[in-house]
Amino acid sequence: MAPTVEEIHLPEIGPGQVRVRIRAAGVCHSDLSMVNGTLRPPHPLILGHEAAGEVVEVGAGVTRVSPGTHVVLDWSPPCRDCWHCTHGEPWLCAAANVAALENGMTLDGAPVHVMLGLGAFAEQVVVPERAVIAVPSELGWESAALLGCAVLTGTGAVRNTAKVGAGDAVVVLGLGGVGLSVVSAARAAGAATVIAVDVSEGKKALAEAAGATDFVVSGETLSKDIRARTQGRGADHAFECVGRAATIRAAWRATRRGGQVTVVGMGRADDMVELSALDIFTSARSLRASVYGSSDPDVEVPLLAREVLSGALKLDHLVTDRITLADVPAAFERMACGEGARSVVTF
Fold first, then answer.
1. Are 168 and 192 spatial neighbours (Cβ–Cβ below 8 Å)?
2. What predicted TM-score, i.e. pTM, was given to this entire model?
3. β-bridge partners, 343
């Protein structure tokens, strides 16, 4: 079913909740996963989770923001009480990462669900206080929105999960908003070689703008192409930003013995990755995932905001299309075809 623009009744604001007027919302591959069968959430569903806006109302007991505060929405707000949160892994919070929650009604009274507890492809949202992060008012709305998913996820994968260091060789497979953020973060971390890989030749200019030293069109000879650019060894780090078994295997083959493969893309439950037991042993590679950049959003979103304002982190190249809500289906089509980086809905 293709997404449509509809009117709904938002719930009344309750204790510990805030109402936010959305100013910008990025179209992420996770949004597409909700409509293409990768995930199967309940319907009707309001899409959208990478967003920023202005607080217009707060409920009783809210202390971290007030009306007028500029905020980034957090689609995986940690509870701070579960085992993972109390052991330094808030990105794995047991109470977060819910695909959809009931929140609101259609005009005829049917319950409505919101994606990842937000449903940010909307003029306004009502969310828990812990799902908003204050940012400086000087930060542009588009940049603020991108911090909430693509930039935090990609930058965190480099800084927190893989810990890319100076002089490393890095390969990035998949050049959407997250993959391009990985490219930028790897270059900023001092990687000597950053090889950007995509199925579309049209991504070359975007990769170069993000800081890639090399660009390769993915194909049957990908591992040889990567080794030719890394003194025959393969990359120290490979980042898979697509979420497909075939791409994960390609990242594995492109990595040197003892190297690290970091899976950033979210794939299907039935898309199985096969690696031989002998290959795992003899290659001594490590394979791990990076969920939300292995980050604590409350700490790292304000840090990234300061980097954007200082000029240390540039995001302009990530936004290739500025659209309205009605244009979201077309943005999904571009994404499925591998065109552009981020489409951003502006209100």
1. yes
2. 0.94
3. 27, 321
